[in-house]
Design goal:
single chain, about 425 residues, alpha/beta, 6-stranded parallel β-sheet, 13 helices, globular
């Protein structure tokens, strides 16, 4: 049996899939430790996994709440730049503290979140194998794929290729400080410098929780790239109290802006106003940043809660209104629920583009959101059967993609054999 370490950002969107995969490996007899700052501990304890605290003086309990309070008020490029700067600080902490933590904890192999590319340098330095796991929209670059921070659809013309290349060059310029931090440590550790993000991915296996049916056509992925479908496990999540007695039996519309970009109060108002008068019950989860009392006078008197048992409610839902976070999107489609997306920042525009591409819903960009646009999208998705049928098609694809069981099989094979685990798909 192997002692696995997990490195991922301390937010629900990354911790939920990573702890689910960790629990599956633990169920198979492996030991699993998540290394992170103190704010991640409650998630890890709820999942029943081991926790190893990093940088306790720099990131005391509550540090992430302060950061989320800032980014929760942002959208678009401002939020993306803020996130990149936060990742630079995180990369520095990982590079400085994790090698010692790995040696002291006895971790033998790593599962690295795709967004923490500096983790590969740590693994290389301490000479342990690792597998890359994409919890959000896969970031593996390819010129024909629109950048993750845009809502651009997939196009094959020369102009689309040029558009993609120019946008990615801008992103690389923004992200250059992170690469410089990584290479500074690689020089100290006598490791070859990295010049592209591709060099930081695992050579054994790359796992994406997207099903391949929820991705644009790919032609240049490495052959050890695997689309396993969603990594979720409701048994390992923190328990949430919910007033089930207030459900009125009408078709349920579930609205959530996640746990990061969730302080844009006007969007909750617009969602409520757009749903007012529909023969449905609107449930809004504020994601923890806003107290329900601050949203107590919304139009149509929706049921507002701080946190919701999302997986349970999606089993009852007719429609999801979401920021297009990957987890909420895939969990909705796992239940055959169509979507209206309001992408706010980071990879959410790219997820929204794939919602439209697959015909499983519509999106309204946050920059142009309005009650009338939302109402039009909501009525269209509820009225046109094609959206429901496409959501059911994705539900079938997700169920046959393998999920955490297949992902754990790939991880075990990669670590046991030390050889690349090849996909049956040809890219």
């Amino acid at each position: 049996m192997t002692h696995f370490g997990i490195l991922c950002p301390p937010s629900a969107g990354h911790l939920n899939p990573m702890t689910a995969l960790g629990r599956e490996l633990q169920r198979r007899g492996h030991r699993v430790t998540i290394l992170g700052i103190l704010d991640a501990r409650c998630y890890v304890q709820a999942a029943g996994l081991e926790f190893w605290a990093l940088a306790e003086s720099e990131f005391p309990l509550g540090a992430i709440a302060k950061m989320l309070d800032q980014i929760g008020k942002m959208n678009g490029i401002a939020a993306l730049v803020y996130s990149i700067n936060a990742y630079k600080k995180s990369a520095t902490v990982v590079l400085r503290t994790v090698p010692k933590a790995l040696r002291e904890s006895g971790v033998e192999a790593l599962l690295l979140d795709e967004t923490q590319l500096e983790g590969s340098t740590v693994a290389e330095f301490v000479q342990i194998p690792f597998v890359t796991v994409s919890c959000a929209l896969t970031l593996y670059p390819e010129d024909k794929i629109p950048p993750f921070f845009t809502t651009w659809s997939y196009k094959q013309g020369w102009w689309a290729l040029l558009r993609n290349q120019l946008a990615m060059s801008v992103l690389r310029r923004f992200a250059q400080p992170i690469q410089e931090v990584v290479n500074e440590y690689r020089r100290q550790w006598n490791l070859p410098l990295q010049y592209t993000s591709c060099e930081a991915y695992s050579k054994l296996a790359i796992i994406s929780q997207q099903p391949i049916e929820f991705e644009f056509p790919r032609h240049k992925l490495p052959q050890h790239f695997h689309f396993t479908g969603p990594l979720y496990d409701d048994a390992g999540r923190q328990k949430v109290n919910f007033p089930y007695d207030k459900l009125n039996g009408k078709p349920l519309i579930y609205a959530s802006l996640g746990t990061v970009q969730n302080q844009l109060q006007y969007i909750f108002h617009d969602i409520a106003k757009a749903c007012e008068g529909l023969d449905a019950q609107l449930i809004i989860s504020s994601g923890g940043a806003l107290e329900p009392k601050t949203l107590s006078n919304l139009p149509g008197e929706p049921l507002v809660v701080k946190y919701a048992p999302q997986l349970e409610l999606l089993k009852k839902a007719s429609l999801t209104i979401t920021h297009a976070g990957m987890n909420t999107t895939l969990e909705s489609l796992s239940n055959g629920v169509p979507i209206v997306a309001i992408p706010i920042a980071n990879d959410q525009p790219g997820v929204a583009a794939r919602i439209a591409w697959t015909g499983t819903g519509e999106f309204v960009p946050v920059a142009s959101v309005s009650v009338s646009k939302l109402r039009t999208a909501i009525k269209q998705v509820l009225a046109q059967d094609s959206f429901k049928q496409n959501a059911l098609r994705l539900q079938t694809a997700i169920h046959r993609s393998g999920g955490i069981s297949r992902a754990a099989d790939i991880v075990e094979q990669a670590i046991v054999t030390g050889k690349p685990v090849l996909s049956h798909l040809k890219y």
